Amino acid sequence: MPSDQYVKDYLDSFVASVRALDRAVINGMAEALASIRDQDGRVFVLGSGGSAANASHAAADFRKLCFLECYSPSDNVAELTARVNDDGWPAAYVDWLRVSRLSDRDGLLILSVGGGSLDHNLSPNLVRAIEYGNEVDARTLAIVGRADGYAARYADVCLVASNGQHGFLTPISESLQAAVWHLLAGHPLLRTAIPVWEDRVKA
What is the pLDDT, as a whole number, of residue 57? Predict the structure, then answer.
């Protein structure tokens, strides 16, 4: 494929995916996060691979801009790798949540391309975390790229952030995770602080 065609196809797919985002679901996520904060709950942001990096950034933004107590388990490399080494990857996040005493006041925010699948051995750590969240009645939110994964079926609120063009599924899904959490961090129901560039530096 010529490089100019690749760039066009990628950007066209990205734009189509943005236009397909369900605004009602995004507002539902903002309402759920605000409700968790109002009842002094915490949000645990979970992802793997590129989505783990996104989880770290999202947790920081929610803490800084929304006064929302938020954690990303993958930030603690020592604990995460000890759990993976000793107990295996599927148990790594759920055991972290147990130690954190996840409760019905808290929430999970799942960031994932596929949303997990035990049948295909994809992101079993996320599947186990969602299962545990449902057991303790924590609210589970998800931003995923596919509507057929575990997160899409079992989250309380799930946004599918892809228009289904699988040639670009992973990069577009992970890019839209960032777009949506930034949107949420600035949402009127959530934001309690203004980013420095918007606040101190006038155009």
Answer: 98
Counting as low any pLDDT under 50, the low residues of the chain are: none
Q: Which tokens belong to 82?
A: 């000890």
- Name the E strands within the chain: 43-46, 70-71, 107-112, 139-144, 157-160
Q: What tokens were used for 108?
A: 């999970």
Domains along the sequence of the chain with CATH: 3-192 (3.40.50.10490)
* pLDDT for res 167: 84
Neighbouring CB atoms inside 10 A of 180's CB total 20
Residue 64 to residue 107: CA distance in whole angstroms: 18
**Residues 114, 84: Cα–Cα separation, whole Å:** 21
Under 8 Å between Cβ of 123 and 114: yes
pLDDT of residue 164: 65
- Output the pTM of the full model: 0.94
